[in-house]
Amino acid sequence: MSDSDFNETKARALTLLTAREHTRGELEQKLQRREFSMTSIETVLDELQGEGWVDDARAAELYIRQRANKGYGVHSIQAGLRNKGVSSECIERCFAEADVDWVTVAQNVIERKFSSEDLGEKRQLHKAMRFMASRGFPAGLVNRLLRQLVEE
Q1: CA-to-CA distance for 90 and 107, rounded, in angstroms?
Q2: How many helices, marked H, and strands, marked E, lie in the chain?
Q3: Contacts of 9 (CB under 8 A, 6+ apart)
């Protein structure tokens, strides 16, 4: 590996990191698409990780907060993190440490999207259940919240 290849790879990685937080897996994929050598990619990522520029846990925590604030549930967020190359252990640890009230997140999504009058109809209730499932919320939680809304 030449110094210029290493420097170009590192410069591109740093450019990507200045735009937003990336996981190691994301950076690796993006650098591979730019056709940098795997040797230089691995070397650069090891160095950046050692310097604290790349931290999967930090990226996962940020992603969890951002997606929860946009109204996405646990399953959707976990799938997104797996797609970003975050390990299962890291995902579990970050969710355990996340200060997110998933019941409140789900309630807010339901209240924004559906009115309690509409949910009295079976068709609308099923539509709400499908929508919440597509957002990644557990079925048990959705069923409980929708029943509470319908009973009010």
Answers
A1: 27
A2: 9, 0
A3: 31, 36, 37, 40, 41, 43, 44
Q: How far apart are CA 148 and CA 143, in angstroms?
A: 9
Q: Is the dihedral of CA 7, 12, 15, 17 positive or negative?
A: negative
Q: Tokens at residue 126, please? A: 């099923």
Is 98:60 a contact under the CB 8 Å cutoff?
Answer: no
Would you state the structure tokens that stand for residue 29, as one six-digit string?
């994929």
The pLDDT mean for the chain works out to 93
pTM score, whole prediction: 0.88
What's the CA gap between 127 and 85, in Å, rounded?
A: 32
pLDDT in tens, 61-110: 999 999 999 999 999 999 999 999 999 999 999 999 999 999 999 999 99
Instruction: Enter the tokens of residue 16.
Output: 């990507």
What is the largest distance, in Å, between two alpha-carbon atoms of the chain? 69
